[in-house]
């Protein structure tokens, strides 16, 4: 009898204004990866048949060595000395997260890949170790940490160059065995670069259940790499202080039982990434300058979701009305406007999951 694993990973909205590469919210929109593992012996070089169903899959590679989900899984396996999937496996992907829109599609794919490897090879990785693997592929922690653990999440990376592994005494027996296995595998295969231990650290913050995430999603993709290339190499001190002040307030403001609209609105302003990305998202300057809690009932705050182009509006009521106002700005853009869709999403407290059953 074979085994079936169903992996669900939430979409995420990173940054939330001032928290560039720091903050993430996990949202009720999912990437689902089903792995059907047959008991037979290996049948192909990687043992993977990759199938996408539904939307948000056009242009994605079905080559297991290139596809982000399976490439990540193969990397995690290689770090444990496992060259390919242990048994013939059909990987069926249903992706409801639009690609390249600032809703963490790549982070979700990476998290799914790590959970997939963990499941098919029974690696028993801890959540912390899974995060290490994710960070070797997606180098900023905001999306992957929120997708992995769920909720409103703050995260940081250790300075990998200056840190060593955590002392043996702090790791339990399973962790020590896991390290030994990985280190042996890395020694045997010099092409495998193991993640250092504990590179990412996170904290789940409070978020009022009254808050929903309105996502206005333009019908064009913006690669994160392009949006990151638009950022400057250095910042003015006052701009960094501007963000730090707001970020400190935001970490607590969203968790209050009754959210304070103007406190949150101001705390979601940013001078580190949005100003430099304005030219990539027509309509963004007008959206950020126009809507506020006084003229838009229910609105708490508004920002670019991740690297864009999606707009994230946090609100407690009037969700459809807020979305309509923001969409109208995109409609008015030159040359026929920019088509958008919108989704009113919950902020979900549960992160990625993997459920096993018999086939
Ligand atoms: N389900 C998936 N399967 C395979 N590859 C994926 C999947 N989802 C995303 N990707 C890869 O990630 C790319 C999009 O990543 P990118 O970082 O540019 O945007 P994003 O993650 O959607 O946005 P952001 O990081 O701003 O939230 C896709 O073009 C594709 O190469
Ligand atoms: N913090 C990242 C999120 C996108 O992956 C950025 O804004 O570039």
Automatic annotation (TrEMBL):
<comment type="similarity">
    <text>Belongs to the GHMP kinase family. Homoserine kinase subfamily.</text>
</comment>
<feature type="domain" description="GHMP kinase N-terminal">
    <location>
        <begin position="67"/>
        <end position="151"/>
    </location>
</feature>
<dbReference type="InterPro" id="IPR000870">
    <property type="entry name" value="Homoserine_kinase"/>
</dbReference>
<dbReference type="GO" id="GO:0009088">
    <property type="term" value="P:threonine biosynthetic process"/>
</dbReference>
<keyword id="KW-0808">Transferase</keyword>
<keyword id="KW-0418">Kinase</keyword>
<dbReference type="InterPro" id="IPR006204">
    <property type="entry name" value="GHMP_kinase_N_dom"/>
</dbReference>
<dbReference type="InterPro" id="IPR020568">
    <property type="entry name" value="Ribosomal_Su5_D2-typ_SF"/>
</dbReference>
<dbReference type="GO" id="GO:0004413">
    <property type="term" value="F:homoserine kinase activity"/>
</dbReference>
<dbReference type="Pfam" id="PF00288">
    <property type="entry name" value="GHMP_kinases_N"/>
</dbReference>
<dbReference type="InterPro" id="IPR014721">
    <property type="entry name" value="Ribsml_uS5_D2-typ_fold_subgr"/>
</dbReference>
<dbReference type="GO" id="GO:0005524">
    <property type="term" value="F:ATP binding"/>
</dbReference>
<keyword id="KW-0028">Amino-acid biosynthesis</keyword>
<keyword id="KW-0791">Threonine biosynthesis</keyword>
<comment type="pathway">
    <text>Amino-acid biosynthesis; L-threonine biosynthesis; L-threonine from L-aspartate: step 4/5.</text>
</comment>
<keyword id="KW-0067">ATP-binding</keyword>
<dbReference type="InterPro" id="IPR006203">
    <property type="entry name" value="GHMP_knse_ATP-bd_CS"/>
</dbReference>
<keyword id="KW-0547">Nucleotide-binding</keyword>
<protein>
    <recommendedName>
        <fullName>Homoserine kinase</fullName>
        <ecNumber>2.7.1.39</ecNumber>
    </recommendedName>
</protein>
<dbReference type="InterPro" id="IPR036554">
    <property type="entry name" value="GHMP_kinase_C_sf"/>
</dbReference>
């Amino acid at each position: 009898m074979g085994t079936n694993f169903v992996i669900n990973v939430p979409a995420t909205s990173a940054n939330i204004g001032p928290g560039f590469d720091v903050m993430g919210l996990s949202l009720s929109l999912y990437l689902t990866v089903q792995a059907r593992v047959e008991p037979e012996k290996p049948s192909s070089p990687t043992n993977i048949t990759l199938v996408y169903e539904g939307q948000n899959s056009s242009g994605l590679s079905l080559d297991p060595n290139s596809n982000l989900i399976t490439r990540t899984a193969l990397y995690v396996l290689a770090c444990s000395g496992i060259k390919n999937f242990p048994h013939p496996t059909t990987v069926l992907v249903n992706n409801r997260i639009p690609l390249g829109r600032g809703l963490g599609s790549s982070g979700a794919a990476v998290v799914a890949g790590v959970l997939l490897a963990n499941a098919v090879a029974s690696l028993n990785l801890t959540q912390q170790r899974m995060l290490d693997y994710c960070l070797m592929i997606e180098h900023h922690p905001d999306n992957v940490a929120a997708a992995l653990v769920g909720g409103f999440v703050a995260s940081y990376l250790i300075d990998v160059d200056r840190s060593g592994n955590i002392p043996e005494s702090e790791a339990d027996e399973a962790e020590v065995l896991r390290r030994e296995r990985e280190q042996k595998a890395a020694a045997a295969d010099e092409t495998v670069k193991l993640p250092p231990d504990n590179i990412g650290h996170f904290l789940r913050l409070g978020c009022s259940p009254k808050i929903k995430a309105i996502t206005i999603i333009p019908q064009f993709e913006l690669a994160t790499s392009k949006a990151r290339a638009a950022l400057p190499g250095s910042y003015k001190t006052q701009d960094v202080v501007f963000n730090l002040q707001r970020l400190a307030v935001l970490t607590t403001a969203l968790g209050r039982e009754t959210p304070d609209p103007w406190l949150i609105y101001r705390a979601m302003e940013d001078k580190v990434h949005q100003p430099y990305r304005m030219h990539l998202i027509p309509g963004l300057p007008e959206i950020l300058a126009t809507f506020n809690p006084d003229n838009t009932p229910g609105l708490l705050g508004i920002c670019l979701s991740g690297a864009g182009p999606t707009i994230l509006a946090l609100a407690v009521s009037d969700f459809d009305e807020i979305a309509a106002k923001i969409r109208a700005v995109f409609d008015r853009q030159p040359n026929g406007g920019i088509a958008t869709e919108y989704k009113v999403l919950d902020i979900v407290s549960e992160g990625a999951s993997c459920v096993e059953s018999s086939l």
